Automatic annotation (TrEMBL), chain B:
Its main location: membrane. Keywords: Cell membrane, Membrane, Transmembrane, Transmembrane helix, Transport. It comes from Sphingobium indicum BiD32. Gene3D superfamilies: MetI-like. Belongs to the binding-protein-dependent transport system permease family. CDD domains: TM_PBP2 (cd06261). PANTHER family: OLIGOPEPTIDE TRANSPORT SYSTEM PERMEASE PROTEIN APPC, PEPTIDE ABC TRANSPORTER PERMEASE PROTEIN. It is a multi-pass membrane protein. The lineage of its organism: Bacteria, Pseudomonadati, Pseudomonadota, Alphaproteobacteria, Sphingomonadales. One of its GO terms (cellular component) is plasma membrane. This is Dipeptide transport system permease protein dppC. GO terms for biological process: transmembrane transport.
């Protein structure tokens, strides 16, 4: 022991009151310590108590909960013994907190600069001018664009990744000795996450702050942490140095987490002998919002020239970052958004563009499963009523027959029959998502459109849902369109993959083609941005490198949409001529000027 | 049925029980009050006006020397019955139109909403004056006036709720399932807006009590010698300086009635939320 640890937590217990009014522990027997300048990661699923523990390091417990035992020491301060005003002196000053969703943590009616320097002003640490100068310096260190002017903007003018970094600037303005990062990159796209992680890591290292990093993602943590604490249901399952946990986990639960993070590749089922027409075909689809102009494009175009086919029983993965239009494809197929031009064919028959004119049978054959089961299931209805409605609507099943079928469905999705009369409010996230899936299955569909069905779930729960879907697909032969932002999931379960960028298909092909280079520059960026579960990946990854300089672009509407971010762009070609669609030798088709030989191998 | 109602009443929080007791009390008064009244409504029975409490006149006498208790017991019927019926009519009409607007799309929503905006700009008192002047005062007309006046307000609240709910994923799922508009409005949207609508109903009820009282004061409401609670307050206003029971009693009656209704509604909504119904 050369020096006393900087932060030390000993036998910490936090209790809360349950509905019956009894006190029960939500986290108990938590011990860890870290030296000055170390980064400790708290890993666990939702409900594991990781955020609760992180908040106790601010001396805070959420309403209804109390820190009921143990000690929390930061530097020379024992947080459990301090009163309100002494804690207020520490918070945002010596101890800073970076929340998960920066977009909702900023006040939309004040400028960024006012909010970033607020902690320094509240604690009277420096005059305003000095604080502003320091903020600009932090903006530069965090690799934000236009560091001198960005402070004058308002939160809605900035992207999620930028706000997350600005929140880090807000936390670091007082030079805190301890920074708590609560899932700071969870809400971001992978391509943004890598930039934010780089910025965080550089700043934390440079300032020598001690940090606590809360996350559910082992691969992200591998980049940041010196020590890892694995939590489950409010208790420590395993704690130790990052390398040991990542490479030689001792606990079963840690291994489960690791396994869930690497979805197993599932072999594609035998292709069913092809009948004349594919199950679903989309031809030349353009869709968006607002009035349709003279050129046949809507005022705010979301999708441009989409062509795809899904065979019976096959799975098509659609990947892209937020705003790429991937959910819009599902909405167009379901009829919720009539396309501006192009056709959707089901079984060779042209589907009416909107909801009007579709027959009940056409509705039945295509079912939509939304991402967020919390909002996709009507909170006023019971489980039984939700599942019985499609049965009554499509199959005219009523009374006892319907109830039998509902029980069968519950069995199919591995939920106990006793749930049938429960209301939605009392179910867990995973259970809700299963009900959400079961409602689609109740229709007896041929195609299920799954919109990010596992994104809102914990890794382990999400993996179980994927497992269930694969099984159902084998047993029932239902085709699936699997929309996701997570390329590793899509690569694991889909037969064909479509990469969407800003509403255009940039690369399409069979799964095998997405395992070998070369890729379209955007696919390359996507694949390269997925964190690998080893330390040092962040430094080695070339993803997100600055693109080469390029001349001005004309206002040609069909130019490559990825041009502003492309690392392989060519001046005089990419900014003047729309890219052609060309095949690659590995079997995929890309929308790019580059071919096999000129694409960067990765 | 009765047992389950009793069970639910027992599960209410304290404020809800108080509200329930007040509501039951006033319903009972509305139903049986006139039978219990010791004197006829319009009879001049006391020799002194604004008399205090006595064994003969439990709540004293009013500005003409009539028995306040008798007038209160028979007046409650008008207030409770008329206001409840009018509030129910206003809320159900407003909500039905709001649901139509929410599932009907812009083509239905826009004209309907602008029409409601127009109605909301008509001053309710003037509107009632014109109608009463044209058709003469009757209970049926008062009911219609009160209901009509408060339809636009309820419509606005219900539409705001329904339009938001219509964007929810579960409504989108129902639309993509091919459900008709009627099913979406009744089965998917309506159950999720009941609680705020009940709160709104409580508010409308209070407004209507006040509107009817105002009309009675102008002599256009319930016609003398009958009087509703509001007109009892108004007609005895000159006794306010003396703190006469004749004005306090009906004022307290209105207060307990409206507060009771609102306590009960809040409690129902609250206990309902926990059950997810």
């Amino acid at each position: 022991m050369s020096e006393a640890p900087h932060v030390e937590v000993k036998s910490l217990t936090v209790t809360a009151r349950n509905a019956a009014g009894e006190m029960f522990p939500i986290v108990s027997d938590i011990d860890f310590s870290l030296r000055r300048g170390e980064v400790l990661a708290l890993i666990g699923e939702s409900g594991s108590g990781k955020t609760t523990i992180a908040l106790t390091l601010l001396g805070h417990a959420r309403p209804g909960a109390t820190i009921s035992g143990g000690s929390i020491r930061v530097g020379d301060a024992e947080l459990t013994k301090l009163d309100r005003s002494a804690l207020a002196q520490l918070r945002g000053n010596r101890i800073a907190y970076i929340a998960q969703s920066a977009a909702s943590a900023f006040n939309p009616s004040r400028t960024i600069m006012d909010q970033v320097i607020e902690p320094a002003l509240i604690h009277d640490l420096m005059p305003r001018a000095q604080a502003e100068a320091k903020a600009v310096e932090l903006f530069r260190a965090l690799a934000l664009p236009f560091p001198d002017q960005i402070g004058a903007r308002y939160p809605h003018q900035l992207s999620g990744g930028q706000l997350q970094r600005l929140m880090a600037a807000m936390a670091l303005i007082t030079d805190p000795e301890l920074v708590i990062l609560d899932e700071p990159t969870t809400a971001l796209d992978v391509t943004t996450q890598i930039e934010v992680l780089r910025a965080f890591k550089a700043v934390v290292l440079e300032r020598g702050a001690t940090a606590i990093y809360v996350s559910h993602d082992l691969a992200v943590v591998a980049q940041m942490a010196d020590q890892i604490v694995v939590l489950s249901q409010g208790r420590i399952r395993e704690a130790g140095a990052a390398a040991q946990i990542l490479h030689a986990p001792a606990d079963d639960y840690t291994r489960t987490l690791m396994a869930a993070a690497h979805p197993a590749i599932r072999p594609a089922p035998e292709k069913i002998a092809l009948s004349a027409a594919p199950l679903l075909e989309i031809r030349g689809l353009t869709a968006g919002y607002g009035k349709i102009g003279k050129d046949g494009r809507p005022r705010i175009p979301v999708l441009r020239d989409i062509n795809l086919t899904i065979e019976r029983g096959a799975t098509l993965g659609v990947i892209g970052e937020s705003g790429s239009g991937k959910s819009t494809i599902a909405r167009v197929i379901a009829g919720l958004l009539p396309p501006a031009s192009g056709q959707v064919l089901l079984d060779g028959e042209v589907l009416p563009p909107g909801l009007q004119g579709r027959s009940r049978d056409q509705f039945r054959r295509v079912q939509l499963v939304f991402q967020n089961a919390d909002t996709a299931l009507n909170p006023a209805h019971s489980v039984g009523r939700i599942l019985a409605r499609p049965l009554a609507f499509y199959h005219d099943l009523k009374g006892n027959a319907a109830r039998m079928r509902v029980l069968e469905l519950l069995d199919l999705i591995r939920l106990p029959a006793t749930l049938i009369d429960r209301s939605i409010g009392g179910l867990s996230g995973g259970q809700k998502q299963r009900i959400n899936l079961a409602r689609a299955l109740a229709a007896d569909p041929q195609l299920i459109l799954c919109d990010e069905v596992t994104s809102a779930l914990d890794t382990v729960v999400g993996a179980a849902i994927l497992e269930l879907m694969a099984e159902l697909r084998r047993e029932l032969g239902i085709a699936t369109m699997f929309i996701s932002h997570d390329i590793s999931t899509v690569r694991a379960i889909c037969d064909d993959i479509l990469v969407l960028y800003s509403g255009t298909m940039v690369e399409t092909g069979p799964r095998a083609a997405f395992g070998v280079a070369p890729f379209h520059p955007y696919t390359d960026l996507l694949i390269g941005s997925v964190p690998e579960m080893r330390a040092g990946w962040l430094e080695e990854s070339h993803a997100g490198a600055a693109p080469p300089p390029i001349g001005g672009t004309g206002d040609h509407p069909d130019l490559c949409r990825f041009l502003p971010r492309c690392a392989a762009r060519v001046d005089g070609l990419c900014n003047t001529t729309p890219p052609p669609r060309r095949p690659l030798a590995k079997g995929s088709q890309i929308l790019c000027h580059h071919g096999d030989e000129s694409l960067i191998p990765s | 049925m009765i047992a389950s109602a009793f069970k639910r009443a027992k599960a209410l929080p304290l404020s809800g029980k108080v509200g329930l007791a007040l509501v039951i009390f006033w319903l009972a008064v509305a139903l049986f009050g006139p039978m219990l009244a010791p004197y006829p409504v319009g009879a001049f029975v006391a020799y002194e006006v604004f008399d205090g409490q006595s064994a003969k006149h439990w709540l004293g006498s009013d500005y003409l020397g009539r028995d306040v208790l008798s007038r209160l017991l028979s007046g409650a019927r008008y207030t409770v019955g008329l206001a409840a019926a009018a509030a129910l009519l206003a809320s159900s009409t407003g909500t039905a139109l709001a649901l139509t607007a929410a599932v009907g799309g812009t083509k239905v929503d826009e004209p309907l909403s602008r029409f409601m905006d127009m109605l909301i700009s008509i001053p309710s008192k003037i509107f009632s004056l014109v109608l009463v002047a044209a058709f003469g005062s009757s209970l049926g007309l008062l009911l219609l006036i009160a209901a009509f006046t408060y339809v636009p307000g309820n419509y606005r609240i219900a539409r705001a709720l329904a339009v938001n709910l219509a964007q929810m994923d579960y409504v989108q799922v129902a639309r993509a399932r091919g459900e008709g508009r009627f099913h979406i409005a009744i089965a998917e949207i309506l159950p999720n807006m009941i609680h705020p609508l009940l709160a709104d109903f409580g508010l409308r009820f209070v407004f209507i009590v006040l509107l009817l009282s105002g009309l009675s004061f102008l002599g256009l409401g319930v016609q003398p010698p009958d009087a509703d609670l509001g007109s009892l307050v108004r007609e005895n206003i000159s006794g306010l300086g003396e703190g006469a029971l004749a004005i306090l009693a009906p004022a307290v009656a209105i207060a307990t009635l409206t507060v009771g209704v609102n306590l009960l509604i809040d409690a129902i909504g609250f206990s309902g939320k926990g059950k997810g119904r």
